[in-house]
Amino acid sequence: MTISDGVGRRPGGRSARVRAAVRAATLSELAEKGYTALTVEGVATRSGVHKTTVYRRWGGIDGLIADALEMASEEPWPIPDTGSAAGDLRALARLVLTGFTEAAEAPVSTAFIAAATQSPAVADALRDFFASRHDQAARIVTRAVARGELPDGTDPAEVVRAAVAPLYYRLFVSREPVDATVADRAADAALAAARAGTLGQVGSG
After folding, report:
1. CB 3.0 to 4.6 Å from 153: which of 91, 168, 198, 204, for a disulfide?
2. Same domain membership, residue 174 and residue 89
3. Are residues 96 and 36 in the same domain?
4. Annotated DNA-binding ranges (predicted)?
């Protein structure tokens, strides 16, 4: 998922500093303990923010996770720009894969998915997070259309979904092995579908 700790990214007084500190503590606690062991007390201790403040502002662990996702959705994503649709989609799929396989990121990314299956508030925040990522990744497709690599009317979000969905299926449904080869294959399949015109915008033709 490629989510940073957010510290120093949000200017604006004590309230912003408290929010950033609590967000960083939430991510650290998730990385070390996972969703099921996350506690308000642990976040409060790590952040240096009194637990009554945490409860008052975030309500509980689901509020903490949802807010961390909201902050992440507002941050820029390093969208690949290799000069070709094929290279960009492969790099994008590998970027997503890295968020769930690299030791520094995988525990938090996996915890977000686990939390979303149990909390409607986190599920809503996760949906908004992915919507933001899809909006940013859409540049890959709009550039490809402008270069003539993909047909007019191609739906950018659908191409992005098609490129990364097989990774999520293997990671969280079938539990099959997933690596760079699988990521490349998913990206190539999405590109082929887009070139064939099967990922057009609804009502575009």
Report:
1. 204
2. yes
3. no
4. 39-58
